[in-house]
Design brief:
Helices cover about 15% and strands about 35% of the residues. It is α+β, with helices and mostly antiparallel strands and about 170 residues long. The protein folds into two domains: about 1-30, no CATH class; about 30-170, Nucleoside Triphosphate Pyrophosphohydrolase (Alpha-Beta Complex), CATH 3.90.79. The strands form three sheets. It has a four-stranded mixed beta sheet, sandwiched between helices. The longest helix is centred in the last third of the chain and has 16 residues, at about 155-170. Bound molecules: zinc ion (ZN). Zinc ion binds near residues 21 and 25. Zinc ion (ZN) binds near residues 4, 6, 7 and 25.
Length: about 170
């Protein structure tokens, strides 16, 4: 960040994520909130999306994305699931939190710090999966067949590993 968003003066880095300008405005550069969800069906298969756009085009992902404006995680996650794979909250159980993780997201040349919450849920019934937006394909795969190294985002990969290990232990 170079300029104060309140007055336009040059910013000086105070420490870590805190900036100040000559008019004593204090600007915090916090990570952007995002979320995603691993959806599991009754055969313990997981819904895996293939990224249709850069960054990470062709690599694996879970449906999700950035919170828009002042959205809660609940609202952002429901919106992203609907936009990306055409599912509404009646198509899955209440999302359960797995972990949070910090990622870097390369957006048009800017490195954005992303604070991702990763969730999981069980599918209810047999809804039609309808990939769109930045999702190329979305298919259910046996969890053992998913190679974590092919998952693009660190947050999504770490969440997958926690989910896989808990399902294996029978603790979910
Ligand atoms: Zn200022």
């Amino acid at each position: 960040m170079n300029f104060c968003r309140r007055c336009g003066a040059s910013l000086e880095l105070v420490n870590n994520h805190v900036y100040t300008c000559k008019n004593d405005h204090v600007i915090f550069a916090n990570a952007s909130p995002a979320s995603c969800m691993w959806l599991v069906n009754d055969r313990d298969e997981v819904l895996v999306a293939t990224r249709a756009i850069e960054p990470g085009k062709g690599l694996l992902d879970a449906p999700g994305g950035f919170n828009d404006g002042a959205e809660t995680y609940e609202i952002a996650l429901a919106r992203e699931l609907e936009e990306e794979v055409g599912l509404t909250p009646s198509d899955y159980t209440r999302p359960e939190y797995l972990l949070s993780w910090l990622d870097k997201y390369d957006y048009k040349g800017e490195q954005i710090d992303v604070l991702s919450n990763v969730y999981w849920a069980r599918q209810i019934g047999s809804p039609t999966i309808n990939p769109q937006d930045d999702v190329g394909e979305a298919t259910f795969m046996p969890i053992a067949d998913v190679d974590p190294d092919k998952i693009y985002f660190d947050a999504v990969r770490q969440g997958f590993i926690v989910l896989r290990d808990r399902l294996k232990q029978g603790s979910l």
